[in-house]
Amino acid sequence: MTALLAGLVPPGTVAVESFGDTADAFLYPEEEACIARAVDKRRREFTSARVCARAALAQLGIPPAPILPGPRGAPAWPAGVVGSMTHCDGYRAAAVALGRDVCTIGIDAEPAGPLPDGVLEAIALDPERASVSGLSAAVPGVPWDRLLFSAKEAVYKAWFPLTGAWLDFHQARIDIDPAAHTFTATLLVPGPVAGGTRLSGFAGRWLHRDGLVATAIVQRQPID
Ligand SMILES: CC(C)(COP(=O)(O)OP(=O)(O)OC[C@H]1O[C@@H](n2cnc3c(N)ncnc32)[C@H](O)[C@@H]1OP(=O)(O)O)[C@@H](O)C(=O)NCCC(=O)NCCS
To answer: pLDDT-based confidence at 2, cuts 50/70/90?
Structure first.
């Protein structure tokens, strides 16, 4: 398979992905305890994402360590590291960077089918629904509704480590550039402060390939 998220992150950020599971993958006892009562599917995605994460951390020179779910499920990365994980049927990935370079990361992958009935209406702002409709007519073949959803998930994963707070689907507006394979997320609530600068949103990249859509936000540390 060709790189998906691994091709979406900038230099200095390491993304490692997997299109399957390794049977004898290692988990730390603390991680095992987190999924002691989980069904097999959850166990496999949790484990394989951490295999990806440790491989990515190794490329940054960070020794292997447990990556435990923290508040509201956000992964607790080793000190000095920012990162994000995602998993869906047939795909697992993790992306990490040094916190001195990058203030937050959000990645997401989804199966490239249309959203179930009613979900677009629940998650999209009016202009986003109009945009999905226009893109679907102009560029058929891409599940634009699913891509919008994925971008919002990536926004939440980038937002949460900076704020520790919930972000509703209607509190960020996504604008997708179909030609450049990029998107912007405009925060409709006061943004987090990173490196002394208040963020008004995030910029991301997206890809649709091999039955998957993937989105990635890598927010660099503001430069003084
Ligand atoms: C948490 C959430 C984003 C996960 O996304 P998902 O598509 O369901 O699942 P994915 O497989 O892509 O990602 C799961 C991983 O996200 C990470 N994650 C979970 N909660 C997180 C949080 N609060 N912050 C950052 N990352 C989080 C974890 O690493 C998790 O994997 P793990 O449990 O094995 O460690 C989603 O379930 C959710 O709660 N969304 C509602 C909030 C939202 O999206 N708002 C939109 C704002 S515009």
So the answer is: confident
